[in-house]
């Protein structure tokens, strides 16, 4: 399956916008991704291994937080996983 | 340095005037020039999902970001930055802006809108190698006037 890498993380994938992996779940795919590109890991996960709160993961068109199995959702070769950090802010503190 | 065409620069500021007294937000598409800054090639307006507190907060829905990222890819461009407005507040990043900034290497542009009129626009580059060492750095904005000059030349001809 393909994993789409957002602009700020491409410096850790040798500039690649898309990385192909063969995990059978979202977690498996991410494990393979971070094994191949270890510098990605601290940018995606906290020290205790949890997905950072600002990192959104979309399996095809679905936010994995709303899928029944979440990060353990099964994946197929034709699937696309998109990593997209959140964008927010505002004035006054 | 952030390089942007005059038309895009003005469109960004006009967006802030249109949404006043609420914050506007949008995405800058272009190319990163490897340590030399970001060059903007296109501007995409985004919706502010923070309707509960739109006067001092903004958020772009991830699904909209994905759509914009696909659009960028189709155009051979990347997401190189974001813009938003500060209604009746300075064009300076806030604690919230910093806490919610996660796109390292991208430009965060802020326009102060005073009583509905765009005033100062500043850009801040989110630097660092990971979330734990990120910083905002003041970034100059180079506004390209080419299109305007061409139109002026055309009117003279």
Structural notes for this entry:
The complex is a heterodimer of chains A (93) and B (157). Chain A is an alpha+beta fold. Helix content of chain A is 16%, strand content 24%. In chain A, a hairpin with a 2-residue loop joins strand 3 and strand 4. The longest helix of chain A is centred in the middle third of the chain and has 11 residues. Chain B contains four helices and nine strands, in the order E-H-E-E-E-H-E-H-E-E-E-E-H. Strand 6 of chain A pairs antiparallel with strand 4 of chain B.
The percentage helix of chain B is: 25-40%
- The proportion of strand residues of chain A reads 15-25%
* Number of strand segments of chain A: 6
| Unreliable spans of chain B | 151-157
Looking at CATH, the homologous superfamily of chain B is Cytidine Deaminase, domain 2
Topology, number of strands of chain B: 9
% residues in beta strands of chain B: 35-45%
- Largest interface: chains, residues each: A-B, 26 and 45 residues
CATH topology of chain A: Ubiquitin-like (UB roll)
Structural class by sheet pairing and helices of chain A: alpha+beta
Number of helices of chain A: 2
CATH class of chain A: Alpha Beta
Question: What is shown here, in short?
Answer:
The complex is a heterodimer of chains A (93) and B (157). With 93 residues, chain A is of the alpha+beta class.
List the helices and strands and how they pair.
The complex is a heterodimer of chains A (93) and B (157).
Chain A: E1 2-4, E2 18-20, H1 26-36, H2 41-44, E3 55-59, E4 62-63, E5 80-85, E6 87-89
Parallel strand pairs in A: 1-5
Antiparallel strand pairs in A: 1-2, 3-4, 3-5
Chain B: E1 2-5, H1 6-19, E2 25-32, E3 38-46, E4 58-60, H2 62-74, E5 78-87, H3 95-99, E6 107-114, E7 117-127, E8 135-139, E9 141-144, H4 146-156
Parallel strand pairs in B: 1-3, 1-9, 5-6
Antiparallel strand pairs in B: 2-3, 2-5, 6-7, 7-8
